[in-house]
Amino acid sequence: MPPTPTPAPIPAPTAAPTPTARAYAHLWADTRVVFGRCLRATLRSKTNMFFGMLQPLLFLALFGPLLTSLDLGVNGSSWQTLVPGVLVQLALLGGSYVGLGLLMDRNLGIIDRMRVTPVSPLALLLGRTLRDVAQLFVQSVLLVLLGLAFGLRAPLAGVLLGLAFVAVLSGALAALSHGLAMRVRTPPEFAAIANTAVMPLMLLAGLLLPMSLAPGWLDAVSHAVPFRYTVEAVREVFRGHYTSGTVALGAAVTLGLAALCLFAATRLFGRARH
Amino acid sequence: MSTTSTTPPALRVRDLTHTYAATSGPVHAVRGIDLTVPRGEILGFLGPNGAGKTTTLLMLTTLLRPSGGEVHVAGHDLRRDPAAVRARIGYVAQAGGLDPACGVREELVTQARLHRMPKAAASARAEELAHDLGISALMDRPTAALSGGQRRRLEIALGLVNHPEVLFLDEPTTGLDPGSRAELWDLVRRIRTDHGTTVFLTTHYLDEADALADRIVVIDEGRIIAEGSPAALKAQHAPGPSGTLQDAFLVLTGRGPAQEPVAI
User: Fold this and answer.
1) What is the pTM of this model?
2) Does residue B8 sit at the A interface (CB-CB below 8 Å)?
3) CA–CA gap between residue A71 and residue A55 (Å, rounded)
4) ipTM score here?
5) Which domains can be identified in chain B, with CATH numbers?
6) Which residue in chain A has the smallest CA separation from B93?
7) Cα(A135)–Cα(B173) distance, rounded to whole angstroms?
8) Do B30 and B59 meet the contact criterion of CB atoms below 8 Å apart?
């Protein structure tokens, strides 16, 4: 026979339908909690930080010197062309694979555990994505500093603006990567999809060498890849040009892509199920 | 929402179904479950693998949208107000949900923060739970350093952070040694006695259901095929002086009780 004890006192944080302002306040507070947890996890695994930027770093160190005496068909030094490319490559590679971490957390039951709290799926997504942006931002700064050591010269305002472009792009890709990770089951499945998407996009965006070197057909195809506009805008601001059409187009495409990725990721996150 | 003075039951489930699309056509994983769980009851939810236990549990904990039917948890409609339901339940999945690199204290505090407790209250709640569940000495260890029984205690502590009215435990003693199982049974009983918490637990172990549950619900092929107290089920389906719950289970489902043998 079940005993009939008195019911426990009810904590009533979100009993009534909350007005919009309250919902936003919750979203902000919840996102901060998730961000904090994720950031502490990142800081615990110090090796991640280094290995995440190893590949772009190698391109800078071992590939960059090959370009210094070549005519790339663009204004400015080869470092002003390569460093922005490597930064966008970092956002693309780093951002696309962050979903693997989420997938592992999912398989450990961590995500389900957090979904059975009043916290919204959007806060779980944003908290993680902002952590990824923070990590990629720090890596980007280190890459720029290394670039300076190699011979990059660029105005501070241009560098800061370029880093802002890269931050928005990494946020977009990280969010999308998390969305994908909510819909696949295993890391190999995730890696297969991410690899298939990232490799051609990276080559077509003209990250390592500018598309000014490409034959007509390749240049035409690369216009369909949004990252091309981002990297060209970053190269432009690294040369100290802030008001050109290239920069405006790059900003529009990058922000548009971010909005689209965030929207898609939110949908994937909200509906996702085992 | 009801405004009558009678407290709603911990769980009221009406014609709950779940159907999903597979390449071979629709699969009816849950085919209409009706269930009322009074407050303070320990309910054992039994069934062979693939019977729909986990699917039902995922729906009751808001993780999976039901295809049909109605669920009220402590009076709150699962579809219309899932956030209110989440604020009132605790869920301990079989996977557990611990980050191996994360510290015990951090897990507890973060979970309390996710339930929107202010920082100081979250820290206090973490200490209180750790003390209650006998893991105070482990607060600064990473969860990977805990034994199986200690991990389970921490996972249950995480499920209790928000003073839930209903605690869902998915196969809570799977993989534990006999000593830890006995401790966990005591813990579940104590949670109910001290806080009046309703406990909804799935299990493969018939002796566990027998020892712990006030009432047992057996499901198979997405439907409830029997329910009653352990004694009533034995009397009805496995009569005789040596009849066990396992005999009753075998009669009811026409097969063995899942893949694992009954642990001693």
Assistant:
1) 0.87
2) no
3) 25
4) 0.87
5) 40-68+77-253 (3.40.50.300)
6) A109
7) 39
8) yes
